[in-house]
Design brief:
This protein is an alpha/beta fold. It has 15 helices and 21 strands. The structure holds flavin-adenine dinucleotide and 3-acetylpyridine adenine dinucleotide (N01).
Length: about 525
């Protein structure tokens, strides 16, 4: 039996920073990672066109000022190879690899009250115990298995965006299908369209995409580097954990109708996800939301030559920004190409995959390659996949009607187990790097305080947890988010209880709450 102070699960951005922090403070910590390499999201998602949609100057670690100065992002939105190179660079720079076990998927965690330790079982066969476990397992790390008949029957090549072959796939001149039009689908479609022989896109629900206006950023980088400390501090004080076009956004009715359109045009011209923050009430007020949605609908009509096709690409079934918006580079224009066809699954439902292709409606479409970009069991998938138990309490039963946490950091009845960017924290609604660092630092602080005081066990009080669950649900209900059948709601996973998963009130508010809890001697936690 090998014992550690802390076992960290996952070697993505979260786990690596957690290891760095704990090791710096003298904790005996180890990462167990299911995959063969560091990187998490940016190791697995190697599909053509994969890149971030939060600007690289923000979507990067802030904890190492030397790193900030020595690393030069080449583009506004870094592509997957550059992000993976960055994560590897951090790993080597801080000599993290020596405390990572790869191909060690954690399958079970069992808390023993007597020893006050977690027993950790992993696929590498080593039995471990740990005083604390930090689940840095990722919010978008467990793919859904789409409910499509016959996937295994296809005689051609099948690829999944979340597990693209390391050596790539040659799609040149071939007949290719893409199923799914979320962010992964959009990036894949846009990138491969010029190279394939023919591309057929199977769309079940259209998405709102705003332009990236990706570019080289040499000059901007110099400016940001000259004031990186202030820049990062500013990001932490925003709602989304990153700068947006206007530091002082307003409510819709503070503008005249003409000014409101100007504001939307300005955000659109800046590019990126700040569009969804055009007005403070964009995700609260249906009429404001409609104004923002109509603006994008008109841009889609501008871009797509065939007016019937344009209407098929315009979302009509959910408010804008209530499903994760996409950031694109020429997505809608792809449909002006002669070698691209859209199959609208609302008109021609997907019936099954066959040996030759896909049947939708009454037509069998034949392909050489099918690419699935069908999404993830978000936020809870990776945690539910582990058999987590303490006596009679199991995480999967406790969370059957939706996650129950205090601050999205811990769950009552499961002591000494922390989650990074877990459900009921801002997480996926934010620049994840800001949220990851905030969680890692909060967890590290409490572990240090406990060590200094000789304390061994921490767990949320039931009442504190109940209040937090109510707060997260009530704040979500004040928005339009619950109206969309989104992965934020768990709606993309058959049988998953539909409840809004992240904390909606913002990174700035959330950090204040977490800091306040710590200052109040970890109010709401029982520490012994
Ligand atoms: P991950 O990177 O998901 O890493 C989790 C790791 O845990 C994985 O390596 C996984 O193999 C491992 N793991 C899981 N379960 C187990 C287990 N039981 N045992 C052992 N190991 C396990 N966010 C943004 O803010 N901006 C973006 O632009 C952005 N782009 C994205 C693009 C894609 C394609 C995807 C899928 C997500 C994107 N995200 C983005 C979200 C992204 O997941 C986070 O930004 C961030 O990378 C998460 O880091 P993490 O370390 O928390 O999780
Ligand atoms: O997954 P998704 P994703 N038959 O769930 C469709 C981050 N990310 O991997 O909407 C037919 O968004 C499904 O249709 P519907 C980002 O946070 C970021 O693309 O359920 N279609 C949908 O169109 C993102 O939000 C980047 O009706 C089926 C698609 O598959 C998150 O990861 C890049 C189907 C899934 O879209 C997830 O994105 C990539 C079926 N049976 C990812 N099942 C950046 O750009 C599902 N679909 C930074």
């Amino acid at each position: 039996m090998v014992d550690h102070d802390v076992v960290i699960i996952g070697a993505g951005f979260s786990g690596l920073y957690q290891l760095y922090k704990l090791r710096q403070l003298g904790f005996n910590a180890i990462i167990l990672e299911a995959g063969p390499e560091v990187g998490g999201t940016w190791y697995w998602n190697r599909y053509p066109g994969a890149r971030c949609d939060i600007e690289s100057i923000e979507y990067s670690y802030s904890f190492d000022p030397e790193l900030e100065q020595e690393w030069n992002w080449s583009e506004r939105y870094a592509a997957q190879p550059e992000l993976l190179a960055y994560i590897r660079h951090v790993t080597e720079k801080h000599d993290l690899r020596r405390d990572i076990e790869f191909e060690a998927r954690v399958t079970a965690l069992d808390f023993d009250d007597d020893s006050c330790r977690w027993r950790v079982r992993a696929e590498d066969g080593v039995d471990r115990t740990a005083r604390f476990v930090v689940a840095a397992t990722g919010c978008l790390s467990v793919p859904t298995q789409p409910d499509i008949e016959g996937v295994g029957d296809f005689g051609g090549e099948t690829y999944w965006t979340w597990d693209w072959p390391e050596g790539g796939a040659d799609l040149t001149g071939r007949r290719v299908a893409v199923v799914g039009t979320g962010s992964s689908g959009l990036q894949t479609i846009t990138t491969i369209a010029p190279d394939v022989g023919h591309l057929t896109v199977f769309q079940r629900t259209p998405v709102f995409a705003v332009p990236a206006f990706n570019r080289e950023i040499d000059d901007e980088l110099v400016v940001v580097k000259s004031r990186y400390r202030e820049f990062r501090a500013e990001s932490r004080l925003t709602r989304g954990g990153a700068h947006c076009a206007d530091p002082d956004p307003k409510f819709f009715d503070q503008y005249s109708p003409e000014e409101a359109v100007e504001e939307l045009s300005r955000r659109w011209a800046d590019g990126g996800l700040c569009y969804q923050q055009s007005f403070l009430d964009l995700v609260q007020d249906p009429s404001v939301n409609k104004a923002a949605a109509d603006f994008v609908a008109d841009r889609i009509r501008d871009k797509v030559i065939d007016p019937i096709l344009a209407e098929k690409l315009i979302p009509t079934t959910y408010p804008i920004a209530t499903k994760r918006m996409c950031v694109d580079t020429g997505y809608y224009e792809v449909y002006n190409r002669d070698n691209v066809t859209l199959v609208d699954l609302r008109e021609d439902p997907l019936k099954r995959v066959t040996a030759r292709g896909i049947i939708a409606g009454d037509t069998e479409h034949e392909f050489d390659v099918i690419i699935f970009a069908t999404g993830f069991d978000a936020m809870t998938g990776a945690l539910s996949a582990i058999d987590i138990r303490h006596g009679e309490v199991t995480l999967s039963e406790k969370w059957a009607d939706g996650p129950r946490t205090y601050l999205g950091l811990m769950s009552a009845g499961l002591p000494n187990l922390f989650t990074i960017t877990g459900p009921q924290s801002p997480s996926v609604l934010s620049n994840m790097l800001t949220s990851i660092e905030q969680h890692v630092e909060w967890i590290t602080d409490v572990l240090t305080v406990m060590r200094d005081r000789g304390q061994r066990r921490i767990e949320p009080e039931e009442q504190a947890e109940r209040s937090w669950v109510d707060i997260t649900n009530d704040t979500a209900d004040m928005t339009l988010f619950p109206q969309a059948a989104s992965w934020y709601m768990g709606a993309n996973v058959p049988g998953k209880r539909q409840v809004f998963l992240p904390f909606v009130a913002g990174v700035d508010v959330y950090k204040q709450i977490c800091d306040g809890v710590a200052v109040a001697d970890y109010h709401g936690f029982e520490i012994t």
